[in-house]
Amino acid sequence: MARYVVNRLAQAIMLLVIVSAIGFAILHLAPGGPLSQFAASAQMTQEDLDRVTRQLGLDRPLPIQYLDWFGRMLKGDWGRSYRDGEAVLSVISSHLGATLELMATATIIAVLLGCWIGILGALRRYSLFDTLATVGAMIALSIPTFWFGLVTIYVFSVKLGWLPAGNRETVGDGSLLDLLHHLIAPAMVLALVETAMWGRFMRSSMLEVINQDYIRTARAKGMPEWRILTVHALRNALLPMITVAGLQFPTLLGGALVAETVFTWPGMGRLFLDSIGYRDYPVVMGILMFSATMVLIGSLLADILYAVVDPRIRVG
Amino acid sequence: MATAALSTVQLAPGQAAWRRFRRHRLALAGGVIILVLVLGSAFGPYLLPFDDTYIDIMKRFAPPLSGAHILGTDELGRDVLARLMMGARVSLSIGFVAMMIAMAVGIVVGAFAGFYGGLIGAILMRLVDAVLCFPTIFLLLALAALTEPGLVTTTVLIAATAWMAVARVVEAQVRSLREREFAVAALAFGSSNLRIMFRELVPNAIAPIVVAATLNVAKAILLESYVSYLGYGIQPPAASWGNMLNNAQIYLTNAPWLAIAPGLAITLAVTSFNFLGDGLRDALDPRMNIP
C-alpha cells in the first residue's frame, strides 16, 4: 500500500511540474510578455520598461526564470494582482469559499439524485424509466450550462418570482435562510450536468456488478433480493464511483465558473472572468494554476482512496 | 438457394453495422437533424428577406410571429431567424473544423505514443495528462484572453483544448494493435514505421476514432457557445449561437425569445451529435462500452 501511494505521489509531482511548465509558457505567450499591462501605459518610457524588466529578472534565460517562478509558487508567492496589488493567493482564497459552497451543494444533489437514478435504471434495464433517464441524461449533457441558468432565472425569478436572480445574499440580510435561498438556483444549474454524469456511471457500474457470478450465487443460496442488492451489489457498484468523483472534478470546476457568471456568484470562476476582463494576468494565471493543482490533488486522492477500499488495485 | 440463405445470415461487417445503427432510432434522428441544420444554414439565408446584420432601430424587440419576423428581432432590430441561420454556419463550421484539427493532433500524438511506447510514449501521454488537469473552460478562456478574438483563433483554441481525449483513445488502440499479426507482418515486409502507424494501425482503429470525432463536434459546438457567450469568441456584428446569447440575459425580462431560440439550437445540435456518436459506438463496435 505504502509503495502504491509513494508511486502515485511521485507521478502527481511529475505532472505538477509539467502543468506548471504549461502555465509558465502560457504566461509568456501573452502579447508583450508578462509586462504588457505596464508597457501599454503612456507614462512608461522604454527606459522605465528596461529597468523594470531587469528588476523583475525578466531579462534572464527562460529556464532560469521558470525555475525561479516555480520555486516562488511552491513557497506561496504567486505574484500580485495588477488591479489592486493584493497578493494573488489571498485574492483567490477570499473567493474560494463561495465556489466550494456552490460545488459542494451541487455535488451532494448530483450524487444522491444521480446514484438513485442510475441504480433504478440498472435494476429495471430498458424499462420506460430507464429509457427516459438515459435520454434525459444525454440531453442534460448537451444543454449549455449558462443557457440552462438563463432559463432557470426566467422561470423562477422573472415569471414566478420564487428565487433571486443572482448574488450570494441580500445586502443587509445574510441570514442562513437568505443564503440558502440564493444558493438553490445556481446549485441546481450546476448539478444538472453532474447528475447526468453520475447517473450514467452509476448505471453502468451497477449493470456490471449485477451480472457477476457472486450475485447469482447469492441468489441461488436463497438470499432475499433486498439483501443481495444492498449487501452484495450496491457495495461493489459504489466503489468505482470514487474514481468518478475524481474524474468529474474538472467539469465541476468549469461548470462552477459558468454558473457563477450567470448568477453573479462571488466565487473563483467569476473572479477569473473579471480578471480576464481587466487583463490581470497574475490573477488569471494564479487561478489557472490553482484549479489545475486542485484537479491534480483531487485525482490523487481519488486514486489513493480507491486503493484503500479495493485491494485489487494495489497489487496490479 | 443455399448461398442465398447463407448470405442473409453472414452479413458483411459494414452491413451488420448499418443494421445495428438503424435500430438506434435516436442516432438516426440525430443524423437527420444534423442534415437539416446543415442544409438550413447553407440555403436558409437566401430564402429570407432579411440580412442578418441589417439594423432596423424602428423594429427593435419585435416578438416572434409578429409580422414578417418569424422569430422576432433583437435589441438592434435585426432578424433573429436570419442571425440564427448565419450563426449556425459559424457554430457548425467551428464544430467541424475544430474537430478535424483536434483529431489530427490527437491521432498523431496517440499514434506516436502508442507505437513507440517507452520514453517517447510516456512523455507524450504525461503531456496529455497534464493538459487534462486544466479545466477546459479555464484553459480556453485564459488562452482566449491572451489572443485576438475571432473565427480562426476561436477554432484553433477549441481544438487546442479538445485533442487530449482523442490522443488517449488512439494511443490505447495503437498500443494493442501493434502486437497483432498484420502489424508484425508489415514490419517483416519492410514497411517504414510511419507507414505501419498511419496506413496499418490507425485505419484499423477507425471505429473508436469516428466515434470520438462525432462526440468531439458536439463538444466543440458547446465550447464555442461558452466562450462566445462570455464575450471572448466570435465578435459581433457576426452572429454565432453563443454570442447571440451574450446580451440575452440583460433583456431576459422584456425579450425572452432572444434567449430561447439560440439556446434551443445549441441544445438540439449538441444532442444530435451526442446521440449520433452513441449510435455509431453501438453500431461500429458492440464491445466498446464507455459510459
Automatic annotation (TrEMBL), chain A:
Gene3D superfamilies: MetI-like. Residues 96-306 form the ABC transmembrane type-1 domain. The chain crosses the membrane at residues 12-30, 102-123, 135-156, 176-198, 237-263, 283-309. Keywords: Cell membrane, Membrane, Transmembrane, Transmembrane helix, Transport. GO terms for cellular component: plasma membrane. It is found in: Cell membrane. InterPro entries: BPD_transp_1_N, MetI-like, MetI-like_sf. Pfam families: BPD_transp_1, BPD_transp_1_N. It is a multi-pass membrane protein. It comes from the Bacteria. GO terms for biological process: transmembrane transport. Belongs to the binding-protein-dependent transport system permease family. PANTHER family: DIPEPTIDE TRANSPORT SYSTEM PERMEASE PROTEIN DPPB-RELATED. This is Diguanylate cyclase. It comes from Bradyrhizobium nanningense.
Automatic annotation (TrEMBL), chain B:
GO terms for cellular component: plasma membrane. InterPro entries: BP-dependent_transpt_permease, MetI-like, MetI-like_sf, OppC_N. The chain crosses the membrane at residues 26-48, 94-116, 123-145, 151-170, 201-222, 255-277. GO terms for biological process: peptide transport; protein transport; transmembrane transport. The keyword Transport applies. The keyword Cell membrane applies. It is found in: Cell membrane. It comes from the Bacteria. Pfam families: BPD_transp_1, OppC_N. It is a multi-pass membrane protein. Belongs to the binding-protein-dependent transport system permease family. This is Peptide ABC transporter permease. It comes from Bradyrhizobium nanningense. The lineage of its organism: Bacteria, Pseudomonadati, Pseudomonadota, Alphaproteobacteria, Hyphomicrobiales.
